[in-house]
Amino acid sequence: MKNQDTSENQAKIVYLGIGSNIGVRRENIEKAKFQLKENKIKFIAVSKFYETSSWPNPNYPKYLNIILKITCHHDPISLLDICKKIEINLGRKTSKKNSPRTCDIDIIDFHGIKLNIENKLNLPHKRMHKRNFVLIPLFEIEKNWKHPSRKLDIKTLISLLSVDDITSIKQI
Q1: Where are the beta strands (DSSP E) in the chain?
Q2: pLDDT tens digits for the chain (172 residues)?
Q3: Alpha-carbon span 56 to 51, nearest angstrom
Q4: C-alpha to C-alpha distance for 108 and 6, rounded to whole angstroms
Q5: pTM given for the model
Q6: Cα R_g (the chain), whole angstroms
Q7: Is 88 helix (H, G, I), strand (E, B) or coil?
Q8: Which of 38, 42, 35, 32 is CA-nearest to residue 10?
Q9: Cβ proximity of 26 and 63 under 8 Å
Q10: What are the boundaries of each domain within the chain?
Q11: Residues 23, 168, 165, CA angle at the centre, nearest 5°?
Q12: What's domain 9-171's superfamily in CATH?
């Protein structure tokens, strides 16, 4: 009898970012969290809400963001598909890159895996180390997190942010 590799079935630790800058932002994020739970995703930790200006166009409405530490049994592509379906369920429309949206769910770090599927998924998230709305709430819930590719700890990554990035984010 062949032994089944149980590592495939073990829950993975994943960090997700959820943001919204259209409609009732907090409600959009809460609905996204509810739908994630409906997809057998368990929350370990949830950051507080953080508000930032839209990037790259600060004239767009401000974003509200959170970071989730979760466990799931999904593979990265299945989790991405779940996130995209939730975004659509919450009214996200296909539009220009970085335009306002009701819901945006990003996989920040999937169990430390490094993965690059062209135009579909990059793990860890390729710009997360430069984003205050990812790093600061991530630090809130995981003080010892280390970037899987860059091998830098979260405190170092935050220290590399500009003063404007650090002072422009507001916890709500």
Answers
A1: 12-20, 42-46, 50-52, 63-72, 104-110, 115-117, 121-123, 170-171
A2: 444 444 557 899 999 999 999 999 999 999 999 999 999 999 999 999 999 999 888 899 999 999 999 999 999 999 999 999 999 999 988 777 778 999 999 999 999 999 999 888 999 999 999 999 999 999 999 999 999 999 999 999 999 999 999 999 999 9
A3: 15
A4: 25
A5: 0.92
A6: 16
A7: helix
A8: 42
A9: no
A10: 9-171
A11: 115
A12: 7,8-Dihydro-6-hydroxymethylpterin-pyrophosphokinase HPPK (3.30.70.560)
For residues 20 and 102, is the Cβ–Cβ distance under 8 A?
yes
Count of CB atoms within 10 A of residue 135's CB?
Answer: 26
Q: How far apart, in whole angstroms, are the C-alpha atoms of residue 45 and residue 124?
A: 19
Q: Pick the closest to residue 36 from 76, 102, 84, 108 (CA basis).
A: 84
Count of other CB atoms within 10 angstroms of residue 152: 14
Q: Which two tokens stand for residue 51?
A: 């508000």
Which residue carries 């970012």 as its tokens?
17
User: What is the DSSP secondary structure assignment for residue 103, as one 8-state letter?
Assistant: -
Cα(172)–Cα(55) distance, rounded to whole angstroms?
Answer: 19
Query: Kind of pairing, strands 42-46 and 63-72?
Result: antiparallel
